[in-house]
Amino acid sequence: MVSFRQQLQHSTASLHKALEQTALLKIMAAGTPTRQQYRQYLSAQLALIAPLEAQLRLWESADWSALRLVKSEWLLADLKALGCDEPLLAADVPSISSPAQALGVQYVLEGSTLGLMLLKKRLNPEDHDLAQASRFISVYGQKTPNNWQVFVERLDRIAVESRPEAENAACAVFSAYLKQFSTVDIL
């Protein structure tokens, strides 16, 4: 029997792959961003994550929110460390109107924490600017793999009849990410 996580992984695979092929994510994956490109990456992430986290707080417990819905704060701190006072980019994100949709959105946000761990390892540790602005890509530190497993257990408990709604939400978030990262003009 296929787990719901595996089902989501399969249904979002083409969007995930397309996202990884965007110019900015290729630069980030290579570990060679300039300071300006790193700022663009963080700004694009913030434009998506801030409105999604604001919506997710309406569907999650205070405890979950305090632990998991803090990525926009990390992004703001990193951008400030880079001297970025630019206005928040606007991103078109899907609306969240049910617990199932909230879970689908979090599949994308929580799943990205594993990729962020890899990204941090690839970035030049001797680059002082990047080191000072790495809170977001540090995610949960050593707790990241365990936090992902806790989330996956929660994900796999979703009612079968709610899965299509969660799946559609995950695809919508990946589509929003793809749109946002495809429109970034690399500096």
TrEMBL record:
Coiled coil: none annotated. Signal peptide: none annotated. One of its GO terms (biological process) is heme oxidation. One of its GO terms (molecular function) is heme oxygenase (decyclizing) activity. Gene3D superfamilies: Heme oxygenase-like (1.20.910.10). Pfam families: Heme_oxygenase (PF01126). CDD domains: HemeO-bac. This is Biliverdin-producing heme oxygenase.
